[in-house]
Amino acid sequence: MSRGPTVLVQLSDPHIGATWAGGDPLGGLTAAIASIRRLRPAPDALVLTGDLADNLADSEYAVLRASLDCIDAPCYALPGNHDDRDTLRRHFGCPGESGMPVQYAADLGPLRILALDSTRPGADDGELDAARLAWLEDALSADRSTPTVIAMHHPPLVSHAPGLDRLALAAEDRAALADVIRRHPNVTLIIAGHVHRAISGELAGCRVLSAPSTYVAFALDFVGEQIADVSAPPGYVVHVLRDGELASHVHVVSD
Which one is the CATH code of 6-252: 3.30.1330.60, 3.40.640.10, 3.60.21.10, 3.90.1570.10? Predict the structure, then answer.
């Protein structure tokens, strides 16, 4: 007899405190949270894939943390390029030493999450240096059987949108990550944020999916080098594992 599904909800890029795109970042997040609370079954966990705050302020993280308290599930956060690692640690209890990358494993029973810090402090694009990849190799080697989701901020894919790809991981870092993934076939999915769009791709035979933002979307543009903001409803992703099969549902929050 099969057990019930394991439900992991991914929220990304709420940018609490932001004003650069107009609109209300807290309003979008609140609408997404209200939608998540209507999910059945309720989520087993939340994962936040970066750009949680916009100005590195304690007050912004406090607002986000308080907004999420109405969801009865553990919350696993990782930083984006707009975040401060230590401030995020204080508000979300992430392990690790001050100033160091925010990286850890979370066990949901039938599903494992590895939070991988892809940020390069002070820059919008990302990186995965040798130390971070070594940590990932060790974490994956510790459990070679449980279906595993790697969560990071910068999606390791090529979108073919020049403005988005300019702010991505370096090609050599993406290739180095692919080498690690090939050695661990129980990695079933890599999830990310950063690009404010739902984009599906592949790395070393593993699915890659970026989540929409709860704040603002980036325009679909395969020619321009600059990123344009466009108004769009907030969205999030629901990842559902049952009987070893993982499916991902991108959900747009309508009125």
Answer: 3.60.21.10
